[in-house]
From TrEMBL:
GN (gene name): metG
EC number: 6.1.1.10
Domain Methionyl-tRNA synthetase anticodon-binding positions: 418-571
Coiled coil: none
Name the record gives this protein: Methionine--tRNA ligase
Record-listed ATP binding positions: 346
Amino acid sequence: MARHLITSALPYINGIKHLGNMVGSMLPADVYARYLRQRGHDVLYICATDEHGTPAELAAKAAGQSVDAFCGAQHDAQKAIYDGFGLRFDHFGRSSSRQNVELTQHFARKLQENGFIEERAIRQVFSLADDRFLPDRYIVGTCPHCGYDKARGDQCENCTRVLDPTDLIEPRSAISGSAELEVRETKHLFLLQSKLQAEVEQWIDANSAEWPTLASSIARKWLTEGLQDRAITRDLDWGVPVPADVWPELAADGKVFYVWFDAPIEYIAATKEWADAAGADGERDWKSWWYEAGDVRYTEFMAKDNVPFHSVMFPATQIGTREPWKKVDFLKAFNWLNYYGGKFSTSQQRGIFTDAALELLPADYWRYFLIANAPESDDTSFTWELFSSSVNKDLADTLGNFVNRVLSFSRKRFGDDVPAGAAAGPAEQKLGEEIAGLLAEYEGHLEALQFRKAAAALRALWSAGNSYLEEKAPWLEIKTDKEAAALTLRTAMNLIHLYAVVSEPFIPASAKAMRSAFALPDDTAAWVTQEEAKALASVPAGTAFTVPPVLFAKITEDDLESYRARFGGGEETAGA
C-alpha cells in the first residue's frame, strides 16, 4: 500500500489569511488527508508558514518589529486559526527554520556542482539613503498606466500591470521614503532553467496525465513559452544566506536566496522538522518520504497562481540536483474564490478573513460551505446569500434537523436507549442498498479529489435518511404499530452513526458530536464498509444515547444584515 505525502501551499507570513487562501490549499488538503487516514492509509500532511521575501520585511517594519519577532508571532497566530478550523497537519513548520537553511544551501551547492547555477552581473536600483540595493518591491511610486501612487516596482496592485522599477513615476524607497535612487551594477545567482527545459518537459509528459486541466495547462504554457534563467538571490536582511564556502563575494555582500527558491524546499525541511521534533529516540524517518521514496504518492494542493512554481520551477530545481528527490505525483490546483465578483485581498482587507470567520460561526459551517463550493473548474464567488442558503438547507435542515428529530422523538417515546422493534423489512433493505451506492460514489469522488462532487454525494447520503424518515413516518407508525416505529428509529439512529463516521473529513467537530451521542463501548470504526452500510446495524438495540445540542443554527435575515453591514456585500463590491 502506498504511503501518502500531502502538502498544501505555504501561507505567507504577512497577516491572517482570507477564505480564498483556505479553500485554495489547506482545507481541501485536510479533507483528503482525513479521508485517507480513515481508510487506513499511512499519511503525512505537511505545511508551514512562508517567512522570507520582501513583504515579510515590509510588514515587520510597518508593525515596528524585527522580522524574526514578527514572523514568530504571525506563525503562532496563523497556527491558532488553523487549529480552530480543525486542520490536522502532522507538522506545521517555518521556512525560516534551521532545517530549511541547511537544505536550501544543500540544493544550491548541488545545482552549482552540476552546472545549473551561474553568477551574473545585473543593474539594480540602489538607495543612497538606505545604503543598499532595493528589490523591486522595495521601490514604490506612481503607476504610469493608472496613476495609483502606491504602485510597487514589480506590479501595480490597482490595475495589475506588471512593471519595472524604472517605469514608476517619482520612485522612492519603501524603507526610508527617499527618492535618492540610482542604478548600479551588482551580482546575483541565476538558476539556469533553460538548460533543464528538456528534462522538465519530459518529466511533465510522463507524470501529468492525471492532473486537473488547470494544473497541466499552466505548466505546459510555461514550457511552451520557454523556461528562462531566473535570479534566485536578493538583497535582503532576512532569508537563507548564500553559503560563503561556494560564493564568498556574494555572501560578504549579504545576498540571500529568493523566497521562491527556498519556499518549496521547506516542504522537505518541514518534514525534517517533524522528524527532529520526535527527539533522538523518535522513530520518524523524514528522508524515506522524500529521498528514493518510490512507495510514496505525493499530492500537492494550491491555487492557480502557485502552479508554475510547483509544476515547473521546483521540479527543475529537484532535477538539477541529480539526486532522487520525490517529485509531485498529483497537483490539485484551484481557481479563485471571489467576494461578490471581486477578488479577496489581504493587502486591501477585502472579504472574509479566517479569524473573523471563526468569530462569527463554528468552523464546520465554513468547512462544509467552502468545500461544497470549491473553485475547481471555474472561479466561484462568495456571497452571504449563497452561504446562508447552503448552511440552512444542507447543514441545519437536511443533517441537523434529521439528527435532532430522530433522537428527540425516540427519547420521548422509547426512553434513553435505542429501541429494538421489528426486524428489518423491504424498506430498510432498499435504504441499505441506496446508502451503500451513495457511499461508493462519495468514496470515488474523494479518491479522485473531486471535492464539489464529493460534497454533493455526502449531501445525497444525508437526504436519503430524510426521505426514509418521511416515507416511514414513525410519528404515524407509533399510533398503530409501535414495533414498526421502533425499527424506523433504530434504523435512523444507525444512519446518524454512519453520517458521523463518513462526514468527519468535511465537518469533524459535528461528526464527533453525532458519534458521541451513542454510548458504544467499542466504537473504533474508522470507516463504513459496503456491507455495514447495507446492514445499518452498527448501533444495536439497547445502546444508551443522548440528544446532543443543536448541531447547526440557522442563519437569519437579521444575521445576514449584520454580516453585510460589517463585511460589505452586494453591488458595492462587485468587480472590485
